[in-house]
Amino acid sequence: MSATAFHQAIGTLQSHGYFINSGFQQENGNTSLQLISKGFRVDIGLSRRGSYCSRERSYVVAQASSSQTSVFNPVSSPSNTTTTDSRKKSNEAALILIRHGESLWNEKNLFTGCVDVPLTKKGVEEAIEAGKRISNIPVDLIYTSALIRAQMTAMLAMTEHRRKKVPIIMHDESEQAKSWSQIFSEETKKQCIPVITAWQLNERMYGELQGLNKQETADRYGKEQVHEWRRSYDIPPPNGESLEMCAERAVAYFKEHIEPQLVSGKNVMIAAHGNSLRSIIMYLDKLTSQEVISLELSTGIPMLYIFKEGKFMRRGSPVGPAEAGVYAYTKSLALYRQRLDEMFQ
Ligand SMILES: O=C(O)[C@@H](CO)OP(=O)(O)O
């Protein structure tokens, strides 16, 4: 296959709803791409000589629309020796949600919204503590908002992870940013976790409340009014976003970008905010607009979901790195943990 035909094949797959999940150029000049769509995965490769570089891959493209390929199971990734058998057995994935640690404006009790405020020292400690709780849970991909408090939380949490992979922020804002942040070692790439930042996961935009003191605002407008602005589903604060408006971008982003990764078996961590996460949890737990009113998230507490057979199962918050219960949730998590124990004993 020529390079032109290779690119045409990618275009055809994209026009059928496939998107590029991962791709890399090897040092020998070969290109390898993985495209996924609703549980189907296609791997294609182009070698310098213009033909597919993998034994099986040339026919996978033709079969893509009629057969479901096995889903890669990164749960077994500690040893990087995933066998075809273990891939076939499982298509589950872990999803970790973390609200950022305490910010300087949380400490001062100010409405923050989309103002980009960093963590306090306590927030830093909370993020590290959160990292300890999830240190035995596989993470292949991290999503954060565009705000520093969520990004700090994700990075600090990963310093505690036993797998010791390096979280790397993806810079796709321009071709130059993309090209200047390339990594040229496949081995190094395997030891990295891509961190994708998305403004859609930002805190709800709090409008004219941003920067105001929460207590003073309640004294001025009344406790009920302020509670309605803060916790109701569809009543926006003055010139700000309601939870419903926040959900329109955050849940849409989750469905379009994050869910396909879970479907393909990738274990995902999302570090975001009180309200962007409330909207996502409302979707995951199928909460009504009444039920979501009483949903409160603490800073720096990770929540674990297992995604299996198209369903999200809430598993609560891992209490500590030694908590046996969490790892008994699924065989894959237990196996992942066992492999970490073997690798790092
Ligand atoms: O100020 C904010 O941005 C949020 C989160 O801290 O406040 P609230 O508790 O009202 O959702």
Automatic annotation (TrEMBL):
Substrate binds at residues 99-106, 112-113, 149, 203-206, 214, 230-231, 274-275. Pfam families: His_Phos_1. CDD domains: HP_PGM_like. It is an enzyme of class 5 (isomerase). Its EC number is 5.4.2.11. GO terms for molecular function: phosphoglycerate mutase activity. Keywords: Glycolysis, Isomerase. The record marks 273 as: Transition state stabilizer. GO terms for biological process: glycolytic process. InterPro entries: His_Pase_superF_clade-1 (IPR013078), His_PPase_superfam (IPR029033), PG/BPGM_mutase_AS (IPR001345), Phosphogly_mut1 (IPR005952). The active site is at residues 100, 203. Belongs to the phosphoglycerate mutase family. BPG-dependent PGAM subfamily. This is phosphoglycerate mutase (2,3-diphosphoglycerate-dependent). It comes from Camellia sinensis (Tea plant).
